[in-house]
Amino acid sequence: MRLTDDERSMLDGEQGEAVQAAMDLLVRYGEVLGAERLVDTDNVCGANIFGQRQMMLCGASDPDAVFSEFSLDSPRPVEITPMKAQSYQLIGPMDTQHWQVQGLSQEAHDAIEESESYSARHGIHLMNTCTPYQVGNVPVKGEHCAWMESSAVVYVNSVLGARTNVEGRESTAAAMLTGKIPYWGYHLDDNRFGSHLVEVAEPVTSSLDWGLLGYYVGEQVQEGVPVLDGIAEVPNLVKLKHFGAAAASSGGVEMYHIPGTTVEARTVAEAFGPRRPVQTLRYGARERRQTYEQLNHTARDSDVDLVMIGCPHATLSQIRDVCRLVQGRKVHPDSALWVFTPRAIRQVAEQNGYAQILRDAGALLMSDTCPAIGQFLPKGTRVIATDSAKQVHYLPAIMKVQGWFGTTEECVNSALTGTWQGSL
């Protein structure tokens, strides 16, 4: 890999041990990927909040030692210096308000809180969300970033035209310390053209429709770049959020084009550039039905223990919609309704009275985490329902529960009645 003089000085240890370890990681990582060089980045989103489990595995409680091992793959502890790049914490393991609902002990809470404080002292912005683009980190077209979190990567690549691959904890931590990331994959123009044409023959209007379409597309194209043709309505942020998250769950989609909507393709021809489609797919009523049944294949029992809204983290508009469904009603005593959103949006929801409406209904508005990342559910939960194709893909596998997928209204109604009555 070709290094600049500045990058070489980092690798030689002239800018400190932490920067040296980070550059060593990036060079090894880039060489495996076949990258010829690094590229500057000043927008890094990673996950560096640790708890008791990581400390136990590391055999040390010193935060520098834990960061060195888990974030830098360093065989020996190094003193971590302030982050060079603008750095942001993604979704983490704990809601600072409702951590007791998660079943965390005081010791577990204190360890995570100290880890957050350590990150803040090193210049990592504590956004604690899987949707940084909702709360102030909105990269511009062409901006080179280094982001983890597949649903956020596919959103900023496709909708905003920023440039990032799905990075890992180690590569983002190294990017935070150096302001560099290997120049490969979706940083390169040639890799951003379409690979598969998807002819959408079925109306796609609701968030459920976009989740179904995304899940189908991801499973079909895997790591390809799909180009959707036949979309009649302009989707909003929520629908694109659901689409990308689903496509990145059933497959490895990191970028897509909707000609006339997403930023890098005004037409189908522009989306493919010099390429020709390797495959043309047709999404019709049969494919929609099959995808719906696939997403609901783990569900058998109609009694619903938990309804989860907000994967990826809910927008203020989604919170308002849930409030209108529950206002003046109560969550069934045998069920629970949890809504997840970024902490900054929860504050606005408090100001707007939405949080109080949810509390009055017996629901919880949570932030900073989610059941899949934090790995927590109400005690005894066997059946969950969600309007997220991504969450119903992962949660049954992670937490060994049954999962229903449906519209937001169907999900909320199941929390109010305790019974699933959704259908396609």
Q: How does this structure look, described?
A:
The protein has 424 residues and is α/β, with parallel strands linked by helices. The protein is built from 17 helices and 14 strands. It has a five-stranded parallel sheet, with helices on both faces. A four-stranded parallel sheet has the order 4-3-2-5. Strands 8-7-9 form a three-stranded parallel sheet. Helix 8 (207-221) runs parallel beside helix 9 (237-250). The longest helix has 17 residues, at 17-33. The radius of gyration is 22 Å and the shape is globular. The N and C termini lie far apart (52 Å). The mean pLDDT is 97. GO terms for molecular function: lyase activity. It holds the Pfam family AcnX. Residues 1-413 form the Phosphomevalonate dehydratase large subunit-like domain. It comes from Plantactinospora soyae. Keywords: Iron, Lyase.
| Helix proportion range | 40-55%
Helix tally equals 17
Residue runs with pLDDT of under 50 for 5 or more positions: none
- The mean pLDDT is 97
Shape: globular
Distance between the termini: 52 Å
Number of strands: 14
Taking the sheet with the most strands, its summary is: 5 strands, parallel
User: Structural class, judged by helices and strands?
Assistant: alpha/beta
| Order of the strands making up the biggest sheet | 12-11-10-13-14
The radius of gyration over CA amounts to 22 Å
Strand content: 5-15%
